[in-house]
Design goal:
Blueprint (H helix, E strand, L loop, with lengths): L3 H10 L2 H4 L34 H13 L8 E6 L3 E7 L7 E7 L17 H6 L4 H6 L3 E5 L8 E2 L9 E2 L5 H16 L2 E11 L1 H12 L6 E5 L17 E5 L7 H13 L5 E5 L7 H4 L5 H6 L5
Parallel strand pairs: 3-4, 3-7, 7-8, 9-10
Antiparallel strand pairs: 1-2, 2-4, 5-6
Length: 303
């Protein structure tokens, strides 16, 4: 059997671009490719300025300063079933039935130390919800589980150093995260119509995977530069979705997002897609500093 250490190494060291071949780009996308004209009123406005402009970069720099130390507000916990999954939980001070945000880390967070899923590039996706002004307007629980085997289902039986094959069915990482949510629903007053999921890179693929496997579970989803999964994108049609990708991504080809969005729209879905010109794989820095993102997320409800 493949050891946990080897599984983590395989998942964390291979570039996503090498794992998932991009299909041909079917159409030309501008810096921000939004839904059709009929849906323009539902598209949130973006922060002013081009992605690399001083005014836009200032938002990213301001977030880094304002969010310093917020990781300390997460409580370390452990979920045990047939497998063990460490996780961090932020509990809001507000009372009443409140939303929950599930954050799925990228490959840099792989492991079982219950720390890395809050660090490195994951700081944006875990801390934005905790900013004092955001908690005042949108109090919520934030769940940040840590997986050592990825979110989708992989075949780790091969003993070579190549990337693991993606298998059909719900991944162990996703399943354990859902088990944690169920347990938290018994422990806290969580609004089951307002459970949201977001993640980046490997975690972005987890978002696509979970919305496809559980199409009526989440109130909304925000995948960032999501890698490949085994599901057709149209399986996520039932979930309100705002997808982000950089057109210069060297790790996960932007064509993956373009094709997914095109497929969703062809199937009758109305996803929002924002593509940033000149932005590489770290698109989460722009996505999670969009001023209207939280307002859009928390305005969504599971029907």
């Amino acid at each position: 059997m493949m050891t946990r250490r080897k599984a983590v190494r395989l998942l964390g060291s291979a570039s996503a671009g090498g794992w998932f071949a991009a299909s041909p780009v079917a159409c030309d996308f501008s810096v921000v490719f939004n839904p059709s004209a009929a849906d323009e009123n539902s598209v949130p406005p973006l922060a002013p300025g081009a992605p690399t402009s001083p005014e836009r970069m200032a938002l990213i720099d301001a977030f880094k300063k304002q969010s310093e130390g917020l990781q300390k507000k997460f409580e370390p916990r452990t979920h045990k079933s047939d497998c063990v999954m460490p996780y961090r939980l932020f509990r809001p001070e507000a009372a009443g039935k409140l939303p929950l945000v599930l954050y799925l880390h990228g490959s840099g967070g792989l492991g079982d130390d219950n720390e890395k899923q809050l660090g490195l590039g994951n700081t944006f996706g875990t801390r934005v919800w905790l900013l004092p002004e955001n908690q005042k307007r949108f109090p919520c629980y934030v769940l940040a589980p840590q997986t050592d085997r990825g979110w989708v289902r992989y075949d780790f039986s091969r003993q070579n150093d190549g990337p693991p094959k993606i298998l059909p069915g719900l991944g162990d990482g996703a399943r354990l995260a859902l088990e944690i949510i169920e347990a938290l629903q018994h422990e806290f007053a969580i609004d089951d119509r307002r459970i949201y999921v977001t993640g980046q890179s490997m975690g972005g693929s987890g978002v696509w995977h979970m919305t496809a496997q559980c199409p009526k579970f989440f109130g909304a989803a925000v995948p960032c530069c999501g890698a490949g999964t085994n599901e057709d994108a149209t399986a996520s049609t039932g979930t309100p979705l705002w997808n982000f990708h950089g057109d210069s991504d060297q790790s996960v080809p932007v064509a993956l997002s373009r094709d997914r969005i095109a497929a969703l729209r062809k199937a009758g879905g109305h996803p929002i897609y924002t593509e940033y010109a000149g932005v590489d794989h770290n698109v989460w820095q722009w996505a999670f500093t969009e001023p209207e993102l939280l307002k859009w997320v928390f305005s969504q409800r599971r029907s």
